[in-house]
Amino acid sequence: MVQSKRSYSESISSEEDQFESRENPISSTFNDNFKTHYFAIPKTSSTNSERGFPQTFCAITGQQSEVKPTKTPFLSLFNGKEPLKNVKFRYKLYEKIWKNQSKKIQSIVNNANDDLFRELICFINEPLPLHQMPSSPSLQPEKLSIGYIQMTSNTANNLRILDQFYKYIEEKNSQRSFLITLNTKNCPHIKGALKEIIKQFDEGHGNKLDSSKYLFYDLGILASWFEKNGLDERIVIVIEDTNLFNNQLLNQVIKSLQSTSSQIPFKLLITLSCDTVSSWINNNIRSDIRLNSQGYKFRSNDNISLGFMILHNLFLTPELTEENPLLISNTLSTIILTRFQNSNNSIDALISEVRLCYMIHFYQSPLSILITRLDESKLYVDGLRKLPSFKKLVEKKLAVKSMEGKDLLSNDACVIKLFQSAKAQYQTHKLVIMNANNVIYQLDPKKRKEKFELYTSLVNGKLFTSKYFRECLNITQHPPRVVERITSSLTTNCLETLNGVSDVYLIKLNKGLNAATDTPELVELLETYFQNPVLTTPLKEMPFNEIFSMDGGVIHEKFEKPPLFEENFENLMIDLLRPNLRATIETSLENAETYLGQIEKPPIICQMFKVYKEAPAAINLHDFYQAYSASLERPKSMTDEDWHKTTYSWFLQNCFEMMHLGIVQPKKSSEYLEKAIWKGV
């Protein structure tokens, strides 16, 4: 938390200097606003006012009892009344479930590019042409073999793919190839790049290279080594961040490798983040180099399909087990899907979001243990009664004057019976939902939507009213052979019965498919199937959905936050992964005391921001400065000329700071600034 704007020299000043700064606030502000760098000094609490996490937790949650140590990252909930054994069980349950889900994720991620790696190994192990052998040095050099690997658009995903490839080649091909990695860090120029190639090869071969007759960057060092030892081993050079390489340097590296390709068995792999490899080559590689190269194109697995594969295996399996006992709510499914599509398809970000959702669910809910172990004590039964879904159910029953509603309020056995019934209902619910999702997926012969996209629309209640669904249901538009193919595979991935739970609606559909004689009858059969009450009942209307489904956590705040740009949804998972930066900056600029405490003089930029708020979308710099300087109070001891210089320097500094924050941006006309995405503040 920023306490004040202070330079490095001021942060190590003596107590006397600090006292003088407090005595002369105008001088301090004057000096601070001419600094080019600032250091955030965290506010240190005194021993008397020091508060640990237990006290902070009680203050935030309103818990009155003392927080008991649990020897786990989880705390005792129910206002501190949750038994210690249940806290430990809740934490172990989280670890068990996430361990199972993590294994699924790692299995998918680790095997996603196995086909690519096998193709690269085949490329590396291709036989060397005869005229590359030392026995025929008079022949012309062979064209350099270059493999262009089309990677994803996400840097973190690409680094993981390369790490997996390095491990793969070490396990499968370490005897026949030697790996050298080049990147912008170890290749500042052509001499540095060639030196790095020689250095890595020498270190990998026990420093046995004889470089006494050569310059430190001469590839002849490697040529002499291969002349003595033969060409059985290949040098595989991988350029990791090609898109960041200087084009001239990249062409120089390739040209140098081409010039020695008859003496040194090079295989060059270039990783690319581009739409098409051919257009990148035409725009970045010189024509003479292209003529002397033999290019091969490779493609890594698409992260979009990989992400959907992970989501499918985590959330779209038909069973509810102790290793996978939770459904995903409609709001959370929308947030995860939208963030994945809008966050550069980052697999790492997706995994972090999913893990955080599981963590939040078990951390904040003491009732989460009931999914695997029923606790019939009064504490937990009363906890069930406080759930919003239970309250809705009771209100509905009391509205029709049902005695069951009164029994649920007074009889614990009735609540336990309802919970056990609901648990079985969720098993049926998931089986029916997953079967219906698979049926809808098969109805589209072009497979325009992924299963998780369909699931999100289905649980949000938007699928059956969408144009896409009507198009899928109208199978009369397809030729007879397409209709036959759709019908034959309609329920291929569906299960009528699983662990003693039956999908009666799917059973009826299968019987109807066998008896259907024409297309209109088939359409009518499908319409009836999709009208079953399980599909039309929202998850949030089911009793105890807070226990059996994840929602990403709820934020309890004293004020309403504006909707977020990406999802227009708000939950705890999103707020932890991506805090609302705009609101934080606005709050700090409008009211600096929120973060700086009681200060005599607020930072000068705060006054600038207040003037900015009143300005139009296009801000004239002269008018902006005049309004800003007029809003400040000139010290009596300062002359007009000095005050003008001071305010003008503050104004320039604040303009650059606001541009850095993204609040304003320069227009083509040098006389104006423009409000960036912050219009309307």
TrEMBL record:
Cell compartment(s), UniProt: Nucleus
Region of interest called Disordered, as start-end residue ranges on this chain: 1-28
Origin recognition complex subunit 3 N-terminal domain mapped to chain residues: 29-370
Entry keyword set: DNA replication, DNA-binding, Nucleus
Main location: nucleus
Compositional bias (Low complexity): 1-12
InterPro entries: ORC3, ORC3_N, ORC_WH_C
Highest taxon of source: Eukaryota
Keyword DNA-binding attached: yes
Stored PANTHER family: ORIGIN RECOGNITION COMPLEX SUBUNIT 3 (PTHR12748)
Protein name per the record: ORC3
